[in-house]
Amino acid sequence: MSARDVLTQVVRDREIHHITLNRYRFSEQRSCKDLTDLIEQLDGNPVELVRDLSRHVSDEARHAMWLTDLLVDIGSSVGTPPGSSYIEEFERLLDREQATPEQGDDFIISSMAAINVTEKRGCEYFSAHIHALKQAPQTEENIKIRETIERILPEEAGHVRWGTRFLAKMAEKSPEHREKVNQAKSKYAAIEQAAFESGMDFTAGAELRRVSSLLDIANTLPLWQRPQYLAERLPQSLLAPDLQMTRIDVAQRAWQRDPQAFMERFVPMFLGGLNRQPAAQGAEKKA
């Protein structure tokens, strides 16, 4: 499903809509922490990047404040959102052991590629959310939500443009830098896609699809890094305790809201996941 398809469904259900907004808030809030950690790791160099990252932190803090105010105003939760965490899965899949500040430009390229790919996802979903809200009933609450997201989107788009320009400048330094930038883009695009899908897929067989995504990520790494990367992450992908908790939470919510719909819609949807193929396997069969 496209972002527009997803958000069209989200805005029709007030409870899910509020949870989605709280996920936005949590992500913006968490970004402040992660960006601050990066600034501290850079330890003042390069100074221009530290300055721009500091401005980025300021923007994300403002977005978190706007979303917190919105959620409080509409009487919704500002606690940790339920279900699988996109941010935590993204960080779990990162190869931090291969990227340290001592690596200089390599560390900077990796850090900026990781930031850029998540900002792109945010823009895609904020844009789709605004579109869905324009098609939805123009209630006071929906208008207030749309106006808040419309304030955030231009600044998020600015973050994407800034990150893209920065990576382009890094690529211009040398053919070696260009290759490293392209590799980083491919790697973090695969990591982000896997993290995103893990938060959307809780149906039967999701563990195997997570493993397939893990293999896709490993294939973007140098050969000598792949065994360690897979060994450290494969057990959690197969066991996936966060996935089990998400299944329990979603099932409880569905049952409490409508037991009949739970049996008629939720159970078949969950079992239908057994027929879903991992992306890579599906592509091979199509070929």
Largest sheet: none
Instruction: Provide the structure class.
Output: mainly alpha
Assess the beta-strand content as a share of residues: under 5%
Radius of gyration: 20 Å
- Helix fraction? over 70%
Average of the residue pLDDT scores: 82
Distance between the termini: 22 Å
Q: Helical segment tally?
A: 12
Shape: globular
SSE run: HHHHHHHHHHHH
| Topology, number of strands | 0
The low-pLDDT segments are 280-287
Task: Write out key terms for the chains shown.
287 residues, mainly alpha, 79% helix, globular, disordered C terminus
Summarize the structure.
The protein is mainly α and 287 residues long. It is 79% helix and 0% strand. The protein has helices at residues 3-10, 14-42, 47-73, 86-93, 105-135, 140-171, 175-200, 206-218, 226-239, 241-257, 259-272, 279-286.
Structural features, described:
This protein has 287 residues and is mainly α. It is built from twelve helices and no strands. It has helices at 3-10, 14-42, 47-73, 86-93, 105-135, 140-171, 175-200, 206-218, 226-239, 241-257, 259-272, 279-286. The relative contact order is 0.10. Mean pLDDT is 82; it is low at 280-287.
